[in-house]
Write a structure and sequence with these properties.
By secondary structure, the chain is mainly alpha-helical. It has helices spanning 3-23, 30-36, 43-67, 73-96, 102-124, 133-151, 157-181, 183-187. The protein is globular.
Amino acid sequence: MNLPNKLTVFRMILIVPFVILLLGGFHEWSWFTAIFGGIMEYVDYIALVIFIIASLTDWLDGYLARKHNLVTNFGKFMDPLADKLLVCAALIALIEMGRIPSWVVILIISREFIISGFRTVASDNGVVIAASYWGKFKTTFQMIMVCLMIANIPALSLLTTIVMWIALVLTIVSLMDYLIKNKDVMKDTK
């Protein structure tokens, strides 16, 4: 278990406190409110900090793995899974909070399932599909969108909406890019 893989596992672990704080599940714990009652109005911002830290570990683990030649099969599988879990958990929580339309989240999550399925078929045929720049742009804008939606700053509502639309367009463009560039993978399946 090298450092990049530990960062990936850490990112996955951070999802639990992130979601609990974001959705307020801790309100049922009297001991929690007794200890942290004074910061209750800041829990969205604490959740935001956790999300940012988790998002930064995504960049850091990839950087370290490439720089120090620490790329592993575990990392190849778990790193994208950790990213998807983090973003999907945030998006689903934001639906419940009324900060994002459910149809946007359905499109984003559907793209992730389609690409994951496509990669599985490719892997079964001995083909590795690398992440594209469109996919990286998509992930970056999705994470910025989530940050803006968690912060929920009224003065930034127009910016939040614009970033949401950019993230949605990049989600669709990156899906089409994967499918077009790798259309031969599907031809080889039996």
